[in-house]
Design brief:
alpha+beta; three-stranded antiparallel beta sheet; single chain; 344 residues; five-stranded mixed beta sheet
């Protein structure tokens, strides 16, 4: 009998045939690879979304921490019997020499917040570096020491986890290059104090226009500072100054341009108005060919879909969208929609 290795019985397969069928064919392997590729393609966006959700949650925690710190500041800093948030900029000697000087050289609300945000050691170091330990105007030799300390210090709550130096706006413009921003988390902050609908002289307590009706309706959650010769306490924004309620006014807003947190008040505040909103929509980068453009405006971030984080004057944290609408956004950056006598 001839043994050919074939089994002609019904359903019969020879041992040699079974050995040949032990692996995948090339076509089967390609099909498996294609299936794996499809699964990875389906899962990757979900993983990225989960990571961004975690980063956004961490960003919200940053805002919550700063909101609590500012409320703790208000608990121990009062004016006319009421708790008050700090000014956007100050010199401890009570005499901000001039608007341009305070805007560029004065210490910021972030410095005031440090001891209430678990940064007591950094606050003490900053006070020591400032010369005399009293946060006087940091010009001359003291400025270099203050800058060195600030540039070397990364605030635990200072930058959004989603932020990178390559963050771009919806038009593809790089925030860092367009706004003269920073590229390192050290020394940087991506959150800004809301000073409302006005900037420069009118925002200083003691300015001739500061008490006028139109200015009262334009004020934000923080005053910018105090005019030369005025008491620093007079610059606090007291809780009763929020005529529309603490729940209705944005205290801090996220910004996609990282800026230094210790000096340069125009770098750590935001303001807005309907006219400028029409020129520079929310979420877009604004070139800093004038100092005011560095702080206009606070509503931008590295989060997708136009989201940006805010903390309100009552301490609550919300993520808004850049498509909120100009009128709705403006209403939330003012602390009084109607003209009423201010307590300043």
């Amino acid at each position: 009998m001839c043994h050919s290795g074939l089994d002609f019985r019904p359903g019969g397969i020879s041992p040699k045939s079974r050995e040949k069928r032990a692996g995948f064919t090339l076509i089967e392997l390609l099909v498996v690879i294609a299936i794996i590729g499809v699964l990875v393609g389906l899962l990757l966006p979900a993983v990225q979304q989960a990571r961004e959700a975690a980063r956004r949650n961490s960003c919200g925690n940053n805002l919550k921490q700063m909101g609590l710190a500012l409320h703790s500041f208000a608990d121990v800093n009062t004016y006319r019997g009421d708790n008050g948030f700090p000014t956007a900029s100050k010199l401890l000697n009570g005499s901000n020499s001039a608007l341009t000087a305070s805007g560029i050289q004065a210490y910021t609300w972030v410095v005031d917040m440090l001891p209430f945000g678990e940064q007591v050691n950094l606050y003490d170091q900053m006070k020591s570096a400032s010369g005399g330990g009293n946060f006087q105007s940091p010009f001359g030799a003291t400025k270099s020491a203050v800058d060195a300390l600030g540039n070397a210090s990364e605030l635990s709550f200072g930058t959004c986890p989603s932020w990178t130096p390559d963050v771009r706006d919806p038009n593809g413009v790089n925030f860092r290059t367009e706004t003269n921003g920073r590229g390192d988390r050290k020394g940087s902050i991506t959150y800004r104090a809301n000073i409302g609908m006005q900037y420069w002289g009118n925002s200083l307590v003691g300015n001739v226009n500061n008490m006028k009706v139109w200015m009262q309706k334009a004020k934000g959650a923080m005053n910018m500072g105090v005019l030369s010769g005025g008491s620093q306490n007079a610059g606090l924004t007291t809780f009763r100054d929020f005529k529309d309620g603490l729940t209705q006014c944005i205290l801090l807003a996220e910004n996609a341009s990282a800026q230094q947190w210790w000096l340069g008040q125009h770098r750590v505040v935001s303001w807005t108005n309907p006219t400028v909103l029409g020129t520079y929509p929310l979420g877009t980068a604004v070139t800093p060919n004038a100092k005011w453009k560095r702080n206009y405006h606070g509503a931008s971030s590295a989060h997708p879909a136009g989201l940006f984080g805010t903390v309100y004057a009552d301490g609550s944290v919300k993520f808004l969208n850049t498509n909120i609408g100009d009128a709705a956004y403006v209403a939330q950056v003012r602390r009084a929609s109607e003209a009423v006598k201010d307590t300043q």
